């Protein structure tokens, strides 16, 4: 009988081999060279462009891309059985997701740490860039709305998590000031910071902060506004770095717990091609999302991470390595659902069952209980870690939305100098982004377009890979390692959008149908412009 240990060991070995061989192969293809000064040094401004130590930047990047998606996606997709999900996490993570993240990071660094939109502008033209930035900003507003509600609901249901999260923010401010201004060493600072991190959790349990969901949404809107405009070293970077240790401990605890438990696989390996969420092809590939590949990662890589990369070779562990760690988290999430029966799975996923996060938290709690940790403590810790990373995704997405908004309203003089318009002001850009996401969250309308998020997210991945493919081709470099993943994701995404369009037309949900049609239009228009630029040998104005 196949056990959870088997899945875990196989995935760890394959991810390690993939990093060691395929990752190094990609590093050679991208010609990573530390003699090139990165934008973090050449454009250092103390706000967004700030060189970071690799361990700190790894924590920031990993915490930003992880969130709750690599947990929710695989558990939701397990309705097709554990085998399709497991195979897609492994293959997608090594050959698509990690490639996507690394290539987006390198392409951004080689373009002055500007977004993938800038790469598209140079390869496709201004219209392609504007199209991408509008699409990216709209997707990020949806992320803001969804995660504002998710985090607010979590704080309302678990007020101890709210207290701990508020203390995390204060701790991050002190940590950032200590490392960058008081010159405290990273190792002693980390030891003290992580210790205080767990103290915050304990204080949260003693003094829970109880407020209703609407109040929390307003408070969170204020927080993410501040987090977007203050220097990255002051809050975003240290908070993500410290929070990453929560996920590291979660991964280690779950890993060791699975080794001790040695749970057998109860869920069927394959349950059928058609399920309630749709057909295995292509719905599986847009449901697992961040566990295998995610377009949101390209926004993080080219939005905040590229501006902090101190040396080009750091891109390997931060870009390629972080994605494989996230894929490992996705495998652990899959194991938590694979070890229960289909009947129990259906109960968890029903309207009154709580959904993927409680299922994951309870599963991890059971695994940790085998080495002496109380079940309730393990379950609470897992839930806290997931909610902490949902908040991390929230503040990172706000800064990325601000970047997209600013870049959209950037214009150039004839001299080539960049002129920043009033709409490009970082405070106004943040206010508009937070206002749009917050308004959507408070109205409750975000639920209506949430089913499109998976397709929109994966379309972002396809478009990012398209930009990198065109960039490498114009440099006369090999493109197959980004081109074939781009083909695959483009086909999967558009097939999913067509099915979603047809489904909503049949159910007379014309708003969702219109959104799906709009995404299809963006996708097709971008490809048309890319083909024209290749035929003409220059960008299309």
Query: Strand sequence of the main sheet, in spatial order?
Result: 1-2
Gyration radius, in Å: 22 Å
CATH architecture: Up-down Bundle
- Our count of helices gives 22
Give the N-terminus to C-terminus distance in angstroms.
60 Å
Low-confidence segments, given as residue ranges, are 413-421
- Helical amount: over 70%
Total beta-strand segments = 4
Biggest sheet overview: 2 strands, antiparallel
Q: Report the mean per-residue pLDDT as an integer.
A: 86
Listing every helix as H and every strand as E from the N terminus to the C terminus, the arrangement reads HHHHHHHHHHHEEHHHHHHEEHHHHH
Entry keywords:
single chain; 541 residues; mainly alpha; Amino acid/polyamine transporter I; two-stranded antiparallel sheet; 22 helices; globular
Can you characterise this structure?
There is one protein chain. By secondary structure, this protein is mostly helical. It has a single domain, classed as Amino acid/polyamine transporter I. Helix content is 74%, strand content 2%. The chain has 22 helices and four strands. A hairpin with a 2-residue loop joins β1 and β2. α11 packs antiparallel against α17. About 2% of the residues have low confidence.
């Amino acid at each position: 009988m196949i056990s959870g240990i088997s899945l875990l060991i196989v995935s760890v070995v394959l991810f390690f081999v993939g990093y060691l061989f395929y990752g190094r192969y990609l590093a050679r293809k991208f010609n990573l060279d530390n003699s090139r000064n990165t934008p973090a040094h050449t454009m250092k401004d103390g706000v967004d462009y700030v060189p970071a130590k690799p361990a700190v930047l790894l924590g920031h990047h990993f915490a930003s891309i992880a969130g709750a998606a690599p947990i929710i996606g695989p558990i939701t997709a397990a309705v097709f059985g554990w085998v399709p999900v497991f195979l897609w996490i492994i293959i997608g993570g090594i050959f698509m997701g990690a490639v996507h993240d690394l290539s987006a990071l390198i392409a951004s660094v080689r373009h002055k740490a500007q977004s993938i939109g800038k790469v598209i502008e140079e390869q496709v033209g201004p219209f392609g860039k504007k199209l991408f930035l509008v699409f990216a900003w709209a997707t990020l507003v949806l992320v803001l709305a969804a995660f504002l509600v998710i985090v607010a609901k979590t704080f309302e249901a678990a007020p101890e998590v709210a207290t701990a999260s508020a203390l995390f923010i204060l701790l991050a401010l002190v940590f950032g000031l200590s490392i960058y201004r008081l010159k405290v060493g990273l190792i002693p600072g980390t030891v003290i910071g992580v210790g205080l991190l767990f103290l915050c959790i304990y204080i949260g349990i003693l003094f829970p902060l109880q407020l209703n969901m609407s109040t929390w949404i307003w408070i969170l809107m204020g927080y993410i506004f501040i987090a977007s405009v203050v220097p990255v070293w002051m809050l975003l970077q240290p908070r993500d770095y410290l929070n990453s240790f929560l996920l590291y401990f979660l991964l280690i605890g779950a890993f060791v717990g699975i080794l001790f438990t040695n749970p057998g696989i109860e869920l069927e390996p394959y349950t059928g091609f058609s399920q309630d969420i749709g057909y295995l092809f292509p719905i599986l590939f847009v449901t697992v999302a961040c566990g295998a590949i995610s377009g949101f990662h390209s926004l993080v890589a080219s939005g905040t991470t590229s501006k902090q990369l101190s040396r080009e070779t750091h891109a390997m562990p931060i870009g390629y390595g972080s994605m494989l760690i996230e894929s490992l988290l996705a495998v652990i999430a899959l194991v938590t659902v694979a070890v229960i029966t289909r009947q129990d799975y259906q109960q968890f996923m029903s309207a009154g069952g709580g959904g993927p996060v409680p299922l994951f938290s309870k599963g991890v709690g059971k695994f940790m209980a085998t080495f002496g940790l109380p079940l309730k403590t393990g379950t609470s810790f897992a839930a806290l870690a997931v909610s902490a990373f949902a908040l991390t995704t929230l503040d990172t997405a706000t800064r990325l939305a601000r970047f997209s908004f600013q870049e959209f309203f950037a214009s150039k003089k004839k001299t080539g100098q960049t002129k920043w318009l009033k709409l490009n002001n970082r405070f106004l850009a943040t206010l508009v982004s937070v206002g749009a996401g917050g308004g959507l969250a408070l109205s409750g309308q975000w639920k209506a377009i949430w089913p499109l998020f998976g397709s929109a997210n994966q379309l972002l991945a396809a478009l990012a890979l398209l930009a990198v493919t065109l960039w490498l081709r114009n440099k006369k470099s090999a493109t197959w390692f980004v081109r074939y993943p781009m083909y695959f994701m483009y086909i999967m995404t558009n097939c999913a959008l067509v099915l979603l369009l047809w489904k909503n037309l049949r159910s007379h949900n014309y708003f969702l149908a219109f959104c799906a049609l709009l995404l299809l239009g963006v996708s097709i228009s971008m490809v048309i412009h890319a083909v024209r630029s290749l035929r003409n040998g220059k960008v299309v104005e």
